[in-house]
Amino acid sequence: MEDNKAKYDKLKEQLGQSTTWPSLYMFKFIVPAENEKIAQVEGLFNSKESQIQIRESRKGNFVSITAKEMMMSPDKVIERYLEAEGIEGLISL
């Protein structure tokens, strides 16, 4: 868990320095190609305010999910990543 805190502290610092907030932020995730997992990731985002793109892997075992959403601050971005960590098999890029 300590590695996670360091990872998110570093991300927060980078986002604070490189981006003017609020800003359109792009999240990228890879999950097993299971409807339940895809629905869980989609559920992280407001469908009216987000653009979500889903692409299947070559063999169809995984899907990549790209979501763009207007985020208010680096803290909100990190909150979203922390929510996503509860999804089994998810990889954040």
List the helices and strands and how they pair.
Layout: H1 2-18, E1 23-32, H2 35-42, E2 50-56, E3 62-71, H3 74-84, E4 91-92
Antiparallel strand pairs: 1-3, 1-4, 2-3
Helix pairs in contact: 1-3
Describe the 3D structure:
This protein is of the alpha+beta class and 93 residues long. The chain has one domain (2-92): ACT-like. Chain A, domain 2 (Alpha-Beta Plaits). Helices cover 39% and strands 31% of the residues. The protein has three helices and four strands, in the order αβαββαβ. The protein has helices at 2-18, 35-42, 74-84, and strands at residues 23-32, 50-56, 62-71, 91-92. It has a four-stranded antiparallel sheet. β2 (50-56) and β3 form a beta hairpin. α1 (2-18) runs antiparallel to α3 (74-84). The relative contact order is 0.26.
Main sheet characteristics: 4 strands, antiparallel
Shape: globular
Mean pLDDT: 92
Figure out the total of helices.
Answer: 3
Strand content: 25-35%
In the CATH scheme, the class would be Alpha Beta
* Uncertain stretches of 5 or more adjacent residues: none
Q: What is the percent of helical residues?
A: 25-40%
CATH architecture: 2-Layer Sandwich
Strand line-up of the largest beta sheet = 2-3-1-4
Structural class: alpha+beta
| Rg result | 14 Å
Q: How many individual β-strands?
A: 4
State the CATH topology.
Alpha-Beta Plaits
**How do the SSEs run, as a string of H and E?**
HEHEEHE
Distance between the termini: 18 Å
What's the number of domains? 1
Q: Which homologous superfamily in CATH is the superfamily?
A: ACT-like. Chain A, domain 2
